[in-house]
Specification:
Largest sheet: none
Order of helices and strands: HHHHHH
Oligomer: single chain
CATH architecture of one domain: Up-down Bundle
Structural class: mainly alpha
CATH topology of one domain: Four Helix Bundle (Hemerythrin (Met), subunit A)
Number of helices: 6
CATH class of one domain: Mainly Alpha
């Protein structure tokens, strides 16, 4: 093959690899997300709870008022929380940041998280109060499921990889690890 033909082949191979990479990235970030996300729900959590608890129209109206008040209560706190977190990580730009500066930001973030959690707890306590006894049982089940979904996954210590990438010895390998090749 002459140099001209080799250049064409290399160019074609590079273009082919670029197309394959582009397709892979597309499917990883765009196409594949459709399979991992739950189908969209009309009304989100509000509609879900109304349906699961079989709320009547009066309960639904009361729940809607509670939801709207909750949103208003936490909206400003969430904005402040975002600003405080941004401010915390902006401190990374400065070399003279003290632990006191970092702890002040962390304390503010913790306070805002606590306040949001208190308001949210109170909100759900009020929602539960508008339910009849059968609905309260279902409400408790739904909340328990939601908390399980939000809880961090517990790792099985027997299935965790060993630290530093070391593998435990196998029967046919020396005790100090796999042979180096």
């Amino acid at each position: 093959m002459n140099t001209n033909n080799k250049s064409r082949w290399f160019g074609a191979i590079i273009i082919l690899l670029l197309l394959i990479n582009a397709a892979t990235i597309f499917f990883l970030f765009i196409g594949n997300n459709k399979h991992h996300l739950p189908p969209p729900q009309n009304g989100g959590a509000f509609a879900f709870l109304v349906k699961e608890l079989a709320l009547d129209s009066n309960q639904k109206n009361e729940y809607q008022k509670l939801r709207d008040r909750h949103r208003i209560s936490v909206e400003g706190l969430r904005m402040q929380l975002k600003n405080d977190k941004d401010s915390l990580f902006n401190l990374l730009k400065f070399s003279n940041v003290t632990d006191v500066n970092v702890h002040q930001k962390l304390d503010s973030i913790a306070f805002l998280n606590r306040k949001i959690d208190e308001i949210t707890f109170s909100h759900f306590k009020q929602v539960r109060a508008i339910c009849n006894p059968q609905q309260q049982i279902k409400f408790d089940e739904v909340i328990a499921q939601a908390m399980q979904m939000q809880a961090p996954k517990q790792e099985n210590p027997h299935h965790r990889p060993p630290p530093n990438g070391d593998r435990p010895p196998r029967g046919d390998e020396p005790e100090d690890g796999p042979p180096h090749r």
